[in-house]
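Tip: read the tokens left to right.
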């Protein structure tokens, strides 16, 4: 399969949205990496990120990009981009919602595992398991909505065993 170049026309607003989407997707894929062996950034996303940001000036969006600091020919969003475009507000909202969803789902599954023996769980159909876990989800959603983390405690007795 051969590679070919294609041209896509963007308005300034669309290109800014593309930059925002590229920043957010690159953050999602690479924010947890630290550069250590086996924990490096996904090069595909990094390269596309730099490529998209390298064309920002052509759309009058150069004020959002720096490349002189890196000295490696790569293009990075600057503080102005982060502050004016609001990408970290989107990330904060995502992380907040994800935290609560993940906590509720994990507690619901934990409770399900404690409510039913291994044999009982194995005897259930997928639909039965899902319904029982969903009942726990609803209970935890109600608890969290009413009390947040106030009633969540860690059982320290388990650490000493």
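Filled-in amino acids:
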């Amino acid at each position: 399969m051969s590679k070919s170049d294609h041209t896509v026309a963007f308005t300034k607003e669309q290109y800014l949205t593309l930059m925002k989407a590229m920043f957010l997707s690159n953050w999602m894929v690479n924010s947890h990496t630290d550069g250590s062996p086996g924990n490096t950034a996904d090069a595909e996303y990094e390269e596309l990120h730099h490529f998209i940001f390298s064309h920002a000036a052509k759309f009058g969006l150069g004020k959002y990009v720096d490349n002189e600091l890196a000295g490696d020919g790569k293009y990075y969003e600057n503080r102005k981009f982060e502050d004016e475009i609001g990408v970290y507000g989107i990330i904060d909202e995502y992380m907040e919602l994800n935290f609560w969803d993940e906590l509720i789902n994990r507690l619901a599954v934990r409770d399900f595992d404690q409510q039913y023996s291994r044999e009982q769980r194995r005897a259930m159909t997928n639909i039965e398991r899902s319904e029982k876990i969903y009942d726990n989800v609803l209970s935890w959603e109600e608890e969290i909505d009413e009390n947040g983390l106030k009633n969540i405690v860690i059982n320290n007795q388990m650490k000493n065993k």
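The CA atoms of residues 43 and 159 lie 40 Å apart. The chain is about 60% helix and 0% strand.
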